[in-house]
Every structure is written in C-alpha cells, then in structure tokens.
Amino acid sequence: MSLRHAILTLLATEPGSGYDIVQHFKQSLGYFWNAKHQQVYLELRRLSEEGWLDCQVEAQSDKPDRKVYTLTDSGMAELQRWLREPAAANKINDALLVKLYGGTLIEADNLRDELARHVDIHQQTLHSLREIEKLYLALDDAQKAQHRLPYLTLRRGILGEEAWLKWADEVAAEL
Amino acid sequence: MSLRHAILTLLATEPGSGYDIVQHFKQSLGYFWNAKHQQVYLELRRLSEEGWLDCQVEAQSDKPDRKVYTLTDSGMAELQRWLREPAAANKINDALLVKLYGGTLIEADNLRDELARHVDIHQQTLHSLREIEKLYLALDDAQKAQHRLPYLTLRRGILGEEAWLKWADEVAAEL
DNA sequence: CCTTGCATGTAACAGGTTACATGATTAT
DNA sequence: ATAATCATGTAACCTGTTACATGCAAGG
C-alpha cells in the first residue's frame, strides 16, 4: 500500500481536495498512479485521523463545498520516512499478455482486434504525455529546474509507451 | 481478477500442480504475472469446485504428494470465453515513480542509491529474459511456430526492460 | 430534457498480503 | 547444524472494486 503516500506526495506540493487528487490521477499522473475516488476519500479520512493531514472546508457559491487537505509537520515527517525506505520492485499482472500467451485457443481475428484496441489506447496516452512534455520544454530554466523530477517521471511514461508501441508493431507483424 | 484465468491458461498447455504454477510465475512468467502460493492454492480449489479443473493426487517416494490439476472441457470453454472478452488496459501503480516525484524532499544520495538498486534488479531480469530468448531462437522452425505467442510475450518483457534501463540512464544523468 | 462536471460519501464484496503451520529430503 | 527445496494449506488482515446515494449548475 502506498496510495496514502502517493496522496501525501501530491499534497506536499500544494494543498488540495480529494477531487483534485483524483483529477491528477486521471489526467497527468495516470501513467504511474491510479485510484478510484472512493479509495482516495477513505484514505484522506484516515490520514487526517492519524494527524498527517489538516482539513478545512471551503464553501463555494455555485459548486459543492470542498474539503481542502494540507500536510501537517508529522505528515511531512511520515512522508520523508517513507521516501527514504527502499521500494519493492513493481508487481506486474498483465491480462493482455495472458491472452496473447493463450491466443492459439481462439480465432486470430479476435486477437488482432484486441491488439488494435490497445494500440489506440497507448497511442492516445503517448500523445497526451507528449503534450505535457511540450509544456515543460517551453518553460524557462528556473521553472524547468523546479519540475525536474516530475519531468523525469513523465519521461518514464513516454519511453514506456514508445516501447509498448514498438512491441505492438512486432506483434502485429507476426499476427 | 484474472489470476484464475492465468492459471487456466497455463494448465491449458499442460497439467500441473500449484507448486508448478508458482514456479512459472517466479521464473519465466514473472515479468507479466505474479501471485503468491497461498492465492494460487486457493484459486485452484475454487476452480475445481466450479468444475473447471480435475484434480489427481500423485504420490511421490522421496518428496511430498502433488495435486496435479487438469483442465476440464467446461474449464476450456470458460477460458475461451474469457480470452474472447476484451481486456481492460493495465493499471499501473509505481511506487518508485512516486518517490522520484517527491524526491526533492529527501537527500539526493538516497534517491541515487534507490535507483541503482532498481537498475540491478532490471538488469538481472533482462539478462534472464535474454537467456530464455536464446533458447527459443535455437529451436527449429516447427518448434518455433509452436511457441510463437509465448515468445511474443517474452519480447514484451525484453523491450519493456530495455526501455526501463534506457530511462534509468536518463535519470542517472540528471541526478 | 438529458448529460456532464463538481463534490462527497457508505456498504458489500472481491482480491491480495502476511503470518503461521507442517514435515521430509538434500545440499553446504 | 543450518538452510534450501519440495509441497500444501488456514486465518487474519489490508487494499481495492462495484454498486448505490445525493444534489446543484451549466451546456447542448
């Protein structure tokens, strides 16, 4: 479990609501972290109960109230403790590869369609990551320096998607 | 959940015990599927209860008894039904990227060490995948044709690890 | 009128991890 | 002696998903 620490990491940059965090996961950070809103709201409550977050309700005129969470000192201490701890290598469970592995048991057309669907998804992801990269590259040096590490995670997304699509080409040629 | 279908896929090629399946996950298939032995034994029991697997106890002289599971006709039907169903895109939760993202909050040395540790792991994985690839490439054409699809999943592992290491080079240069 | 976005949650369930448990054989 | 390999499991716990729930505002 590191959803709680992913949340603390995001809130270390700037305070935000559960909704904000979910939007981050859905948009720019989706290539390395995903969570449903239910899970996020649950963790936010727990993190507050443990004293790692402060919560302030922000009333809005035309939209529903927001609960804005801020990292506390002990929250920052916990985050740093976790950051220093070694991370386990990522566990991968890839259903598409299982399907390809067992692909001789079904029609080749089915497999080709499935691959094409996934190629579309990965191309779209790659495209949106490259758009974000453009924004970064247009920054001046001082701003670039500030977002150096998030940019490196973005590069992981880009290189990862490029490699995936290169692989898909190999597969398409064989199928 | 597709652990049950990953198991059915493996047993479609040849019957095996829970232990055999876990070994597959630990060794050659670890780059696309992972599961603990407890979970595998649990699923095997459930799959038998649903009539998708047959179980035969094989006594061994010097080693403990083995429960060898075989796919039934209805198990094969279920597997094919699942294989034809579209797979959701893979969900990624990568703690290392979260740590990199929040890396400004801790010492740079810590980050470099962590990266080096992961580079080691990925290099070892890539090495063992390449060893498996050599075995495939040495096969004659008929045998190659037989293992075409599993080989394509292996290529995914190799291209994925190569891309990961290429990214790690970029990161190391920046850190 | 209907859908999307904003914004938050509860409850039931499914899936996965950790701890504990057993016991023989083989290698260091 | 000690650890590793083979081989199977139970129980408690933690994490994540799905279904259900509310309610206003803006846009087509």
Automatic annotation (TrEMBL), chains A, B:
Residues 93-175 form the Transcription regulator PadR C-terminal domain. Residues 7-80 form the Transcription regulator PadR N-terminal domain. InterPro entries: Tscrpt_reg_PadR_C, Tscrpt_reg_PadR_N, WH-like_DNA-bd_sf, WH_DNA-bd_sf. This is PadR family transcriptional regulator, regulatory protein AphA. It comes from Atopomonas hussainii. The lineage of its organism: Bacteria, Pseudomonadati, Pseudomonadota, Gammaproteobacteria, Pseudomonadales.
